[in-house]
Amino acid sequence: MFLRCGITTIALLGALMSFRRDIAPDATGTRSAHAASVRSVSRGSIRLMVEPDSGSRFEVRAIDKAQSRVFLSVYILTDHSIVRALERAASQGVLVCVMLEPHPLGMGMQPQQISSQLRSAGIFVRWSPRRFRLNHAKYIVLDDRLALISTANFSRSGFHTDRDFVVFDRNGDDVHELSGLFRWDWDRLRPQLPDRRLLVAPVNAREVLERMIRSARRRVDLYGEELRDTRIEDLLLRAVHRHGRLRFLLPTSAQLDARGRRLVACGCIRELGSPYIHAKYLSVDGRDVYVGSENFSQASLDENREVGLLVTPAAAVPAARAFEKDWRRATKPPA
User: Fold this and answer.
1) Which residue from 23, 33, 88, 194 has the highest number of Cβ atoms inside 10 Å of its Cβ?
2) What is the Cα–Cα distance from 50 to 159, expressed in whole angstroms?
3) Domain limits of the chain?
């Protein structure tokens, strides 16, 4: 059980945050089938940080400024500075709720250990819902005023060695929707999210990403840690046949199937050893940009909990610059 004090989860969050009144959507709301209805956020509400250039100091600073509540959902939590910031917040009376993946790859008993450490500091911890293969999302909601949506795990590698992005989002609709998603998952309820800008797997992420690729007319740029989805691969191959301008950056460890090898043969895939490519990013025709935790894989899009965001090209300029730099340094995978 999550709470040893005997207070139910809904009572805790309901009393402190007006749980249902704040986040329950209109029961008549429906989700559009058109990606165009998922609008990009304005640059003024967005700041995109490039890792490993920025480190975790901005995330720590944001947590330290929290006044009432911190919601954090993450696949891996090992960064000591972030853990200490969460503990400081709890010690100052801020409600801190952390949702962890219990079985991240290669981490052994670390999730159980960090869970115990957080609980001993007065932080409420829950494992992610079992209906997901993995909770691979990486985000923080602070005071329902600021959301941090990350491609990076909250780990040393995420902030110090890997190519990753962290979006600081003050758009009220995005923050409200992500706060609602956290509360729905916390209480093991099915989310009913409005049709805005968040890409959530396994809800709307596949639909939006596929529609973005299908709409490409001039160029497609992607960062990914893996490429393991036949539908995405087929759409990328069709995009190459339409306009020939597709660039996909992968880490040297990525394993490609026959479709992926066809993209290599077209000169569309390059790999980079350092920094390790962990970012998930899609830019289409310089007009639609996605950043988030969703990998371009079947498991990520159909089985995991993942969270991403559509941003404007202006807001994504730091990511686009990093891409150009990394593409020049990357090499074609061996045949």
Assistant:
1) 23
2) 9
3) 9-20+41-197, 205-329
Q: Which residues of 242-253 are buried (b: 16+ CB within 10 A; e: fewer)?
A: eeeebbbbbbee
Segments in 152-275 forming alpha helices (H)? 156-160, 172-186, 205-215, 230-243, 258-265
Instruction: Write out pLDDT tens, residues 131-165.
Output: 999 999 999 999 999 999 999 999 999 999 999 99
* Helix, coil or strand: residue 141: strand
Beta strand 220-223 pairing with 296-297? unpaired
pLDDT digits (tens, 9 = 90+) for 242-299: 987 999 999 999 999 999 999 999 999 999 999 999 999 999 999 999 999 999 999 9
Phi and psi of 208, rounded to 5°?
-70, -45
Residue holding tokens 């609980």? 119
pLDDT at 17 over 80: no
- For 205-329, give the CATH class: alpha beta
pLDDT in tens, 22-54: 333 332 233 332 333 334 444 569 999 999 999
**Prediction pTM value:** 0.88
3-state helix, strand, coil in the chain (%, to 5): 35, 25, 40
Instruction: Report the amino acid identity of residue 79.
Output: D
Residue 224's nearest CA partner among 297, 289, 288, 159 is: 297
Whether the CB-CB separation of 221 and 285 falls below 8 Å is answered with no
d(CA 270, CA 322): 15
Residue 309: in which H helix or E strand, if any?
A: strand 306-311
C-alpha distance across the termini of the chain, in Å: 51
- Please tell me if the domain spanning 9-20+41-197 has the same topology as the one spanning 205-329: yes
Q: Do residues 79 and 150 lie in contact, with contact meaning Cβ atoms separated by under 8 Å? A: no
Cβ atoms 144, 286 nearer than 8 A: no
Helix (H, G, I), strand (E, B) or coil at 231: helix
> Is domain 9-20+41-197 given the CATH code 3.30.40.10 in the classification?
no
Residues sharing a CB contact under 8 Å with residue 132, sequence separation 6 or more, in sequence order: 202, 303, 304, 305
